[in-house]
Design goal:
Elements (H helix, E strand, L loop, with lengths): L1 H6 L18 H7 L1 E2 L5 H15 L10 E16 L5 E16 L4 E15 L4 H34 L1
Parallel strand pairs: 1-2
Antiparallel strand pairs: 2-3, 3-4
Helix pairs in contact: 2-4, 3-4
């Protein structure tokens, strides 16, 4: 009874769950209808895979209603010079410029950017440093994919 009383003020606020209806809801169907063309490079492969996992592409067998065009910029820059003029720290930056295009009318519904960065310690083992760089890229690809899907979801929800 107390829980019902507490939730009563929220009924008139207009809030609705973004994924109302679960896998058969409007947003889930629209996300599954987004085609993500191949993106060049290893970072492109990682971002595309993360996006197709999040979009549920192919889960409902839907046809492509939208196309998501993405251009990535992956940068690795050295920071923190040590006394022997070697780099002690790196920053990996992954940025994405993306457009959600309605395939039927070739209209751009969303033109935005997403990005994230990660710090990497440069250690004496070259193998360990390379492994850290790759792990950072994998994590950044996941983060950028999350940002893109969140923004697309909001855009699709607003158009409903």
């Amino acid at each position: 009874m107390a829980l019902a009383t507490l939730s009563l003020p929220l009924t008139g606020c207009g809030l609705q769950p973004i994924y109302a209806g679960g896998g058969n809801g409007f947003v889930a169907r629209e996300l599954a209808a987004i085609d993500v063309p191949a993106i060049p490079g290893r970072e492109g492969w990682l971002v595309r895979n993360a996006l197709t996992d999040r979009l549920g592409r192919g889960a409902s067998g839907s046809t492509s209603q939208y196309r998501l065009d993405i251009v990535l910029d992956d940068d690795l820059e050295g920071l923190g010079l040590l006394t022997d003029d070697t780099i002690g720290r790196q920053r990996r930056i992954l940025r994405a410029r993306y457009q959600l295009v309605d395939v039927s009318s070739d209209t751009i519904l969303l033109d935005a950017t997403a990005g994230s960065d990660a710090g990497i310690d440069v250690v004496s083992s070259e193998f360990a440093t390379i492994a850290a760089e790759q792990t950072a890229l994998e994590n950044l690809a996941q983060e950028v994919a999350d940002q893109i899907v969140t923004r697309i979801t909001r855009t699709l929800r607003e158009q409903q």
